[in-house]
Amino acid sequence: MKELKHINKYFLKYKWHLLIGVIITIVARIFLLFTPRYVKEIFTVVETYKKGLESGNSSLQAELALIIFYIIGAAIIAGILSFFMRQTIINVSRYIEYDLKNEVYAHYQKLSLNFYKKNRTGDLMNRISEDVGKVRMYVGPAIMYSINTITLFIIAILYMYNEAPVLTLYTIIPLPILSVAIYKLSKEIHKRTTIVQQYLSKLSAFTQEAFSGISVIKAYGIEPQTSANFDELSTNSKQNQLNLVKVEALFFPMMILLIGVSNLVVIYIGGLQYMDGRIESLGTIAEFIIYVNMLTWPVATVGWVTSIVQQAEASQKRINEFLKIEPEIKNTVEEHTAINGDITFDKVAFTYDDTNVNALKDISFSIKHGQTLAILGKTGAGKSTILDLIGRLYDIDKGSIKVNNIEISKHNLTDLRNSIGYVPQDAFLFSDTIKNNIKFGKEEANDEEVIEAAKLAHVHKNIVKFNNGYDTILGERGITLSGGQKQRISIARALIKDPEILLFDDCLSAVDTETEEKILKNLNQVTKGKTTIIVGHRVSSAKNADKIIVVEDGRIVQEGTHDTLVNVDGYYKHLYLKQLSEKSSVNN
Ligand SMILES: Nc1ncnc2c1ncn2[C@@H]1O[C@H](COP(=O)(O)OP(=O)(O)OP(=O)(O)O)[C@@H](O)[C@H]1O
């Protein structure tokens, strides 16, 4: 129960709902327990009548009618109260499920990128859905059935003991056996459920990845292998489900057997006692048979509830594992910090935790507010890493990064990120309209602003050609768009934000050089007064920059402007000449 302590704060939040639920449950059980007593009453009335103590038939009918009326009345009241019992306790479990899901989701969002690299998406999804669902079972049904059992047990045993103490003893003897048997069975069910759960987790992680990468799977024609892998996983999953069903199937037969045995005990011992005259009325035996049947299910639920609690504990443990993870990147400054866009890197070194790749070894440069910096270099040189560090997606190991002459860790993290318009290398679009994808950069933007941003990113003409224009829904990851269109929508998203700092990570790689020139020309206008960093592989995207740096293996190997760098031997001049000759060969 250590892990489930986490839920206590929610119990406290909904304490009044729960208290009302508990009271209703108790009252409902009291009404339910009227039935066996009235059944005994019926026997007594009939027996008394038969003994000829009653004077007339009509009185017997009237008395029986009254008792039946009471039984029906008590059953209706117990039914109505049971409805409200569920409406309170089960509703609370749904509220807590909702709160817990939101808590986990909000926490996921705070966690750093490293967390997402270390954990598979399917696993994250499972913990927020399946595991939270299991914890709900503890919050709702487990608590409801426990109160139910305790109340029913106390009241019923009191009534029974009062009526026939010895018979009570014999009646309840089989119940602990039932409880222990169900507990053992539930434990086995739990063990097998955990295995089923693990396989479901693997299956959903696999499926999620396969569908995200469906275009690659199709392009490589590896559907048969993927299907075979899926088949293997789902066969294992099915086998485990069958193993589970086998033990689950024992549950009801075992209960029916024990109820049968208990009934026989009541009839046999009750019969003997009736013959001995220790029990006055046969009604007592009927009453006890109803008690036995009423108590069997709650007693069985003791084992079942124990298993629910164990499962919830295991699930909450998995949830807590994630909730305990502290975000690596923390906002340490609550007050707002102004950002105008001066950026300085001083001897920055950075190693990715998960791969141990020392991506940046010694990077120093500075760029003033309103200037443009271009970063070039071979693939894997560390260019994207530099951009990620400006947005503080990771914290550096050595050196310092300052924005506005203040260490970035001393900036309010939200302000820092809000001041950045970032266009990633891999444009990600949500399954939503084009308009909303662009407005993602500025939710309150109006249609004119959206169109303006799309025009600047040179994608407006493409969008209006779609039947639904800006309201065109994009498939998952925008698969209905070309790579270049996706990149340009991603650029529009950054531009509409009108941020102080614009970071373009090789975001024109999928557009032709002609469109690139047009976009760059537009960018020249928009980026006036903003600090802009363009990462690329083409000289065309760097030549107008105020400063160019060439990165190689995590270090700056060249620094200058286009005019200075084309005159020095090195990567930039080489690239320039190569791209110049490619261009002239295309023109010829
Ligand atoms: N998220 C990450 N986790 C671990 N290692 C990473 C991660 N991103 C990049 N790396 C590694 O860090 C090094 C620098 O990568 P980076 O993406 O910064 O290079 P780049 O210059 O932008 O390359 P490209 O031009 O291909 O985009 C590479 O060796 C890469 O494998």
Automatic annotation (TrEMBL):
Keywords: ATP-binding, Membrane, Nucleotide-binding, Transmembrane, Transmembrane helix. Residues 343-578 form the ABC transporter domain. It is found in: Cell membrane. The lineage of its organism: Bacteria, Pseudomonadati, Bacteroidota, Flavobacteriia, Flavobacteriales. GO terms for molecular function: ATP binding. It is a multi-pass membrane protein. InterPro entries: AAA+_ATPase, ABC1_TM_dom, ABC1_TM_sf, ABC_transporter-like_ATP-bd, ABC_transporter-like_CS, P-loop_NTPase, Type_1_exporter. This is ABC transporter ATP-binding protein. It comes from Gaetbulibacter aquiaggeris. PROSITE patterns: ABC_TM1F (PS50929), ABC_TRANSPORTER_1 (PS00211), ABC_TRANSPORTER_2 (PS50893). Residues 19-311 form the ABC transmembrane type-1 domain. It comes from the Bacteria. The keyword Nuclease does not apply. The chain crosses the membrane at residues 16-34, 64-84, 142-161, 167-185, 249-269, 289-309. Pfam families: ABC_membrane, ABC_tran.
